[in-house]
């Protein structure tokens, strides 16, 4: 196996403040570059916060100019970055929960959340997923929160050859144990490395549990954040062996 370094960006979001959240994302991306990270995954709706009431007003097309600086920064530091954003595929189309992939090569890929939580239908429409990613020699499947609660979603990723299943999420304390048991089970059942990037603090009226984590393909835990806050969970594979560590992200 070739070397691979991945990371979950456990970031906090300022409600609806795209400019501030872009700066926070850039801080994570800079630290990720210093850590040699090739793929960095942020939580669900990380650029706006999980703000259902604001989503329609904040939603943009994936290639909107307002996100070009962040896309350029991903290319500049050489870190493929998956960020969360309310999107519309056209100006008059429904609002989707998007995961935008800003490639280290300057490319743009779009994933839209396929399975909505109860209550999300008041603000969002179901999406259609997206293509697999290639990072080095590894194939990566994306998920956004409730997607992974459908076992067929992970099974399909494995059938398509995914070596890594990467989910940006918002998980509260009450949901943490069952949700992480499910994700850990996917790692073991499907022989995929599984990454979960959770919010680092409260968002949209929900208290996130934090504790973002990465599991190896045998289900063993590589690394997990100890709690909430702005931290990055890093996992590095060398000679087929994973090692993980946590990096605190300083405030500006």
UniProtKB/TrEMBL annotation:
Keywords: Hydrolase. GO terms for biological process: putrescine biosynthetic process from arginine. InterPro entries: Aliph_Amidase/BUP, C-N_Hydrolase, C-N_Hydrolase_sf. GO terms for molecular function: N-carbamoylputrescine amidase activity. It comes from Pseudomonas fluorescens. This is CN hydrolase domain-containing protein. The lineage of its organism: Bacteria, Pseudomonadati, Pseudomonadota, Gammaproteobacteria, Pseudomonadales. Residues 4-239 form the CN hydrolase domain.
């Amino acid at each position: 196996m070739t070397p691979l370094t991945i990371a979950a960006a456990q970031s906090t979001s300022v409600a609806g403040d795209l400019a501030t959240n872009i700066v926070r994302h850039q801080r994570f991306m800079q630290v990720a570059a210093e850590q040699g990270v090739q793929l960095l995954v942020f939580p669900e709706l990380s650029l706006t916060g999980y703000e259902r009431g604001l989503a329609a007003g904040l939603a943009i097309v994936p290639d909107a100019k307002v996100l070009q600086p962040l896309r350029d920064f991903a290319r500049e530091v050489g870190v493929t970055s998956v960020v969360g954003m309310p999107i519309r595929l056209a100006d008059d189309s429904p609002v989707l929960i998007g995961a935008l992939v800003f490639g280290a090569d300057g490319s743009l890929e779009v994933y839209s959340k396929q399975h909505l939580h109860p209550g999300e239908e008041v603000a969002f429409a179901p999406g259609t997923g997206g293509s697999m990613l290639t990072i080095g020699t590894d194939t990566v499947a994306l998920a956004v929160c409730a997607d992974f609660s459908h076992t067929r979603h992970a099974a399909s990723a494995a059938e398509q050859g995914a070596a890594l299943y990467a989910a940006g999420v918002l998980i509260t304390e009450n949901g943490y144990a069952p949700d992480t048991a499910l994700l850990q089970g996917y790692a073991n059942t499907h022989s995929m490395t599984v990454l979960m990037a959770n919010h680092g603090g409260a968002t949209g009226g929900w208290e996130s549990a934090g504790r973002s984590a990465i599991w190896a393909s045998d289900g063993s835990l590589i690394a997990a954040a100890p709690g909430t806050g702005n931290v990055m969970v890093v996992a590095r594979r060398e000679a087929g062996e994973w090692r993980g560590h946590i990096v605190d992200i300083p405030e500006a």
